């Protein structure tokens, strides 16, 4: 039985993040791996954003959604990776109470926005392939703005109660978070009150958001595949399937580890090692921001050509200055 508590809470000055329990011997190599992935994520997403921003020919809805996705990926990775690297490399595992819940808010808000953007991009591809003659009439700037606002509002509505519920719980006992960042359930377990209401809210809300998004994405891609197989050209079919397959691969890397980390806590906490649970939660925050600019950016011909042009321009300008 947890002791009853009143509204006068003891607010801890700091929490202490363990990193990845059971894998402390690998922390140095994890720090190097994360540093490399974070560098790729920052450079890749910044490059994609810059190209789309400065190139007047890349102003279609698909590119604008991709630009927003790149910005969200930077926020998502930056919310957790610098602190993870600090923990793994130097052992600096302390994090203040306010910083912990700020990190929690941005992590969950970014993931909620990202899943909404993946749905919006799937809808964009559905309209482009299945209703090409009505593309500009359906996806107007006003519609795009409305979709973006709805995605952000939905994330705020989901995340704000979650963070409020956990931050207003009493923390009298251990301040050691068995995780590498301030993950919601890992922090909630430290409370002296019953954490089940906030944990149950997080489970239900994430299941509804991700479940509905995945269902609509699946419907969109099913309709896209039906339209693709109607194409007479085999090359067109293979090109469309290749692009869709890479996009679906990124979605699988994002959704599967994320949902697995949520449900393992409820269904397999005693059977799945803790380090596996933490790794799953870490992967879906680090791998998608690293791979998205490669999958969505380099595979799109216009962005790839613009990227190559900018690279050649920088190299030749540098060589000319040197000579």
Low-confidence segments: 1-8
What is the name of the CATH topology? Rhopdopsin 7-helix transmembrane proteins
Q: In CATH terms, what is the architecture?
A: Up-down Bundle
Question: How would you characterize the largest beta sheet?
Answer: 3 strands, mixed
Mean of the pLDDT scores? 81
Derived from helix and strand composition plus strand pairing, the structural class reads mainly alpha
Give the total of beta strands.
3
Total of DSSP H or I helical runs spanning 4+ residues: 10
GO cellular component, one term: plasma membrane
Membrane topology: Multi-pass membrane protein
InterPro entries: GPCR_Rhodpsn, GPCR_Rhodpsn_7TM, Olfact_rcpt, OR51/52/56-like
Pfam family, one: 7tm_4
Protein described:
With 323 residues, the chain is mainly alpha-helical. The protein has one domain (14-318): Rhopdopsin 7-helix transmembrane proteins. Helix content is 76%, strand content 3%. It has a 3-stranded mixed β-sheet. Helix 2 (61-90) runs antiparallel to helix 3 (97-130). The chain is globular. The model is unreliable at 1-8 (pLDDT under 50). One of its GO terms (molecular function) is olfactory receptor activity. It comes from Equus caballus. Residues 44-296 form the G-protein coupled receptors family 1 profile domain. Keywords: Cell membrane, G-protein coupled receptor, Membrane, Olfaction, Receptor, Sensory transduction, Transducer, Transmembrane, Transmembrane helix. The chain crosses the membrane at residues 26-53, 65-85, 105-123, 143-166, 203-231, 252-268, 274-298.
């Amino acid at each position: 039985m947890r002791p009853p508590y009143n509204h006068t809470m003891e607010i801890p000055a700091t929490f202490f993040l363990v990193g990845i329990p059971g894998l402390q011997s690998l922390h140095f190599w994890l720090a190097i791996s994360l540093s490399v992935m974070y560098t790729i994520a920052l450079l890749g997403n910044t490059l994609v954003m810059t190209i789309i921003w400065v190139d007047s020919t890349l102003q279609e809805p698909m590119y604008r959604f991709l630009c927003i996705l790149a910005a969200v990926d930077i926020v998502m990775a930056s919310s957790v990776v610098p602190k993870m690297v600090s923990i793994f490399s130097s052992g600096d595992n302390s994090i203040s109470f306010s910083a912990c819940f700020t990190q929690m808010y941005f992590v969950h808000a970014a993931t909620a926005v990202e899943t909404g953007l993946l749905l919006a991009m799937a809808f964009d591809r559905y309209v482009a392939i299945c209703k090409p003659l009505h593309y500009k009439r359906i996806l107007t700037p006003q519609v795009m703005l409305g979709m973006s606002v709805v995605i952000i509002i939905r994330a705020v509505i989901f995340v704000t109660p979650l963070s409020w519920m956990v931050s207003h719980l009493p923390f009298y006992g251990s301040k050691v978070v068995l995780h590498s960042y301030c993950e919601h359930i890992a922090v909630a377990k430290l409370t002296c009150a019953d954490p089940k209401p906030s944990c149950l809210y997080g489970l239900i809300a994430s299941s509804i958001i991700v479940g509905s998004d995945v269902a609509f994405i699946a419907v969109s891609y099913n309709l896209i595949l039906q339209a693709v197989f109607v194409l007479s050209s085999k090359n067109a079919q293979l090109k469309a399937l290749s692009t869709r397959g890479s996009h679906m691969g990124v979605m699988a890397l994002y959704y599967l580890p994320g949902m697995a980390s949520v449900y393992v806590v409820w269904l397999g906490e005693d059977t799945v090692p803790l380090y596996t649970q933490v790794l799953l939660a870490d992967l879906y925050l680090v791998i998608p921001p690293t791979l998205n600019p490669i999958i969505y950016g380099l595979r799109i011909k216009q962005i790839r050509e613009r990227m190559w042009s900018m690279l050649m321009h920088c190299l030749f300008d540098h060589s000319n200055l040197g000579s």
